[in-house]
Structure to design on (274 residues):
């Protein structure tokens, strides 16, 4: 079983660097997928209210036989619920669906700046953390200027910023800013929803290391220092995505992957949503 590194967070806790994402896994398939991941050795599951599969995540954790404190679980408030009271209500609903007394990490899912309510949401997250119902609080899809506003208006620095990040969109500026502020960068869509895996550059690197293209990209993410949450509902791929700790990319490999940068997103720009 893989010995997954833990990354220290700015609030004194730690997060498993490699996790399992469940975006777009249907509710009726979530229990089986998460159980497969936990049996393979994952100890970090990333869900959200928007994914509509929190119940499956909670049920899988209970069925796994693992203690609640052995599985790191993240969930998120959807942007239409941004605001102080609505964020608190969203959190309560998520907790009920999960069947937990607390979660390890709670995110604002999107800033939705046109609605101008993400600072209010952040104050709600601060309260939840103070009450001990959330161990760590973070944000997802925040540009640097969104992070700067939070810092200016609240004085609190998120523990994690989860952003779309893959070889087409390496997010160097965001990663540099996050690191300077003590924020851990976490990558969603780490494989560009699988679309980047057909690239011949990655095929060549996979052949060089006798691994899959997906394993190359996940290893690249880990060596960058990112938390990464690949998603799959195929048992073999779930296990393969975890089997990335017995090889290392070199400077030439990094240079080859850097050549793939195009700025292409698979999701929306955070300034445009909402």
């Amino acid at each position: 079983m893989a010995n997954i590194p833990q990354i220290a967070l700015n609030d004194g806790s730690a997060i498993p660097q490699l996790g399992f994402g469940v975006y777009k896994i249907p509710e009726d398939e979530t229990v089986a997928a998460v159980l497969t991941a936990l049996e393979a050795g994952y100890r970090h599951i990333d869900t959200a209210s928007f994914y509509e599969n929190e119940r499956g995540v909670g049920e899988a954790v209970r069925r796994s036989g693992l203690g609640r404190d052995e599985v790191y679980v993240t969930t998120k408030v959807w942007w239409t619920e941004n605001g102080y009271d609505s964020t608190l209500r969203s959190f309560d609903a998520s907790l009920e669906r999960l069947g937990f007394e607390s979660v390890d990490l709670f995110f604002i899912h999107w800033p939705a700046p046109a609605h101008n309510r993400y600072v209010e949401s952040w104050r709600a997250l601060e309260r939840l953390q103070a009450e001990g119902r959330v161990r760590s609080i973070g944000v997802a899809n925040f540009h640097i200027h969104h992070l700067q506003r939070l810092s200016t208006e609240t004085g609190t620095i998120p523990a994690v910023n989860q952003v779309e990040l893959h070889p087409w969109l390496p997010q160097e500026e965001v990663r540099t800013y996050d690191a300077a502020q003590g924020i851990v960068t976490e990558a969603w869509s780490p494989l560009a929803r699988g679309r980047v895996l057909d690239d011949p550059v990655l095929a060549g690197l996979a052949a060089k290391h006798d691994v899959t293209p997906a394993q190359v990209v996940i290893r690249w993410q880990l060596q960058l220092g990112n938390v990464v949450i690949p998603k799959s509902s195929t048992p073999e791929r779930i296990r393969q995505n975890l089997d990335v700790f017995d090889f290392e990319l070199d400077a030439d490999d990094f240079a080859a992957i850097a050549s793939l940068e195009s700025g292409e997103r698979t999701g929306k720009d955070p300034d445009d949503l909402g």
Remarks:
- The chain has ten helices and ten strands.
- The two ends are 42 Å apart (CA to CA).
